[in-house]
Amino acid sequence: MTTTNSSVRWRGWLGPALLAAGALLTSGCLRVAFTVANQGQPPADASAAYASGPRNGIDIYRPTGATGTVPVIVFFYGGSWRNGAREDYRFVGRRLAQQGMLVLVADYRTYPDTIFPGFVEDGASAVAWARANAAGWGGDPRCLFVAGHSAGAQIAALLGTDQRYLAAQRMKPTDLAGVITLSGPLDFAITGDLVPVFGDPARWPDAQPVNFVDGDEPPFLLIHGLRDKVVEAQDSRELAARLQRAKVPATLKLLPEGGHSTPLLGLYQPVQAPEVLPAINAFVGACKRASEA
Q1: CA separation for the pair 140, 174 (Å, rounded)
Q2: Taking a C-beta distance cutoff of 8 angstroms, is the pair 80, 49 a contact?
Q3: DSSP string, the chain
């Protein structure tokens, strides 16, 4: 994981329009980016609390034009485990809902309100809530996926590899139909400003999803840009290789010209990264086809 300056490293997804506007390096660029990405996007269809606390809300986006029950995706955003807000990811919720999925974008506690593994524990709580409540929104709990970008991908991947988190919710990783990681830090160095986020160094190995692959994982889809300067694509390569050696289905989609933000750009403007959305649709669609067989 590249240790570039944290003030800019999690903002590289802003996209061509904002780059042209000269907003990338301004202090307010992240807020401008979300304003542009969400322009014209309606708010969530509903919101709920999956646990008590101000950082434990979840936004619900119902599928567009779907019939019958549909796959469910719980999405965790990035933000260096320090920041982020579910309402900023309306463009993700709406884009995936347009594909016929029930999408739940979850907040989680961030540093300094918690340290590792608090945000992963929140992720497990959100997934358990989704499993218990998805059917009320037309979702199929048999086709329950977790997904995330950047720091959110690490949370999603740990839920799929380290069984302790879901076990605390009376679930297991194979209760998930799959895990989708976008630009995920999956085997990364904890240095610099990440040190306080991950607390006791004795626990740092527990933050690495690659350390928990033992063959009881659900299928994985890993999407990563080869030009990612924030999280090396080798992270996704390594986790995919370990999953495949353990006979776990793992699809690795490398984007030759892609940077850290490219998988998100593929949801904001699919034409800018045309490989992303079809890969997600195929991965999620396999569960729907199997459940209907």
Answers
A1: 15
A2: no
A3: -----HHHHTTTT--HHHHHTT-TTSTTHHHHHHHHHTTTPPPPSEEEESSSSTT-EEEEEPPSS--S-EEEEEEE--STTT---GGGGHHHHHHHHHTT-EEEEE----TTT--TTHHHHHHHHHHHHHHHHGGGGTEEEEEEEEEEETHHHHHHHHHHH-HHHHHTTT--GGGSSEEEEES--SS----GGGHHHH-SGGGGGGG-GGGG-SS-PPPEEEEEETT-SSS-THHHHHHHHHHHHTT--EEEEEETT--TTHHHHHHHSGGGSTTHHHHHHHHHHHHHHHHH-
230 contacts 249 by C-beta, under 8 angstroms: no
pLDDT of the residue at 293: 63
Name the pairing type of β-strands 220-225 and 250-255.
Answer: parallel
At 144, list the tokens.
């329950």
Q: What is the pLDDT along the chain (293 residues), one digit of tens a residue?
A: 443 333 333 334 444 443 432 232 222 456 777 888 899 999 999 999 999 999 999 999 999 877 789 999 999 999 999 999 999 999 999 999 999 999 999 999 999 999 999 999 999 999 999 999 999 999 999 999 999 999 999 999 999 999 999 999 999 999 999 999 999 999 999 999 999 999 999 999 999 999 999 999 999 999 999 999 999 999 999 999 999 999 999 999 999 999 998 999 999 989 989 999 999 999 999 997 787 76
CA gap 153, 184 in Å, rounded: 5
User: Would you tell me how many other CB atoms lie within 10 Å of the CB of residue 112?
Assistant: 9
Q: Per-domain residue ranges for the chain?
A: 6-292
Cis peptide before 117 (omega within 30 of 0): yes
Q: Specify the residue for token string 């959110």.
A: 152
CATH for 6-292 is: 3.40.50.1820
